[in-house]
Amino acid sequence: MPFRTSMLSGVRIASAFRPTTPATRIWAAGLHHSAFFSSNMIQTGSTLPNVTLQHEGSPANTVDALDYFRQFNKAVLIGVPGAFTPGCSKSHVPSYLEASARLHKEKGVDAIACVSVNDAFVMDAWAKDQLANTAEVDGKPAMEFLADPRAEFVKAMGLDFDATGVLGSVRSKRFVMILEKGVVKHVQVEPDFTGLTCTLAKDVAPLLD
User: Which residues on adjacent β-strands are paired with residue 175?
Assistant: First the structure.
């Protein structure tokens, strides 16, 4: 069954980086949108690839993606273009941190995780910055931050794109997935790969019922 996603007509510059200043014009020019969606993109009903990710602030601390998410009856995974980037730090991740307790109690979400093509040290620093004012949920961080330093995980899912002009490497498209024991139940990907039109917590909450 083909995956479900929100589609908008035409490639648009990401709203989070609309070219109103020289800096954001540079960002927009550096993103290569070769196609909306690659033919090998992960679909509803697919199982996550069992690619090794890093976590807990050290490259030595690793977790296999499928094994990790199989332990949760229901989980939400978001992918972001980069740690500390404006849309990710000011809107995308905070939307889930603010909703974490409600998603857990009212929607039955066991875990919320964020993956980015960054190293474990960067993700650890970003996690500390983002979680500083967020209460834990059942004694655990409101969100797990996972590092995909070589983009192997997002490439295996067909969710990578060329951001070398701005971020220096291939990065993750902005996406959100609902997972049940490691199986994809729903996936939404931003049409321009970086915007914030269909991947915030408010967009996924109705799909968790």
Answer: 79, 189
Cα–Cα dist 175/198, whole Å: 8
89 burial type by CB count under 10 A (0-12 exposed, 13-18 middle, 19+ buried): middle
Choosing from 88, 111, 147, 159, which is the catalytic residue?
A: 88
Q: What's the CA gap between 36 and 159, in Å, rounded?
A: 10
Query: At 66, which CATH number?
Result: 3.40.30.10
Q: How many structural domains comprise the chain?
A: 1
- Domain annotation covers residue 10: no
Q: Which domain holds residue 135?
A: 15-208
Q: Tell me, yes or no, whether 73 lies in a domain.
A: yes
pTM of the complete model: 0.83
Distance CA 113, CA 118 (A): 15
Average pLDDT rounded to a whole number, residues 94-115: 97
- Structural domain contains residue 118: yes
pLDDT tier for residue 24 given thresholds of 50, 70 and 90:
very low
Rounded CA-CA distance 86/135 in Å is 22
Calculate the average pLDDT of the chain.
86
Q: Looking at the domain assignment, is residue 2 inside a domain?
A: no
The yes-or-no answer on residue 114 being catalytic is no
Q: What is the pLDDT of residues 139-197, one digit of tens each?
A: 889 999 999 999 999 999 999 999 998 888 999 999 999 999 999 999 999 999 999 99
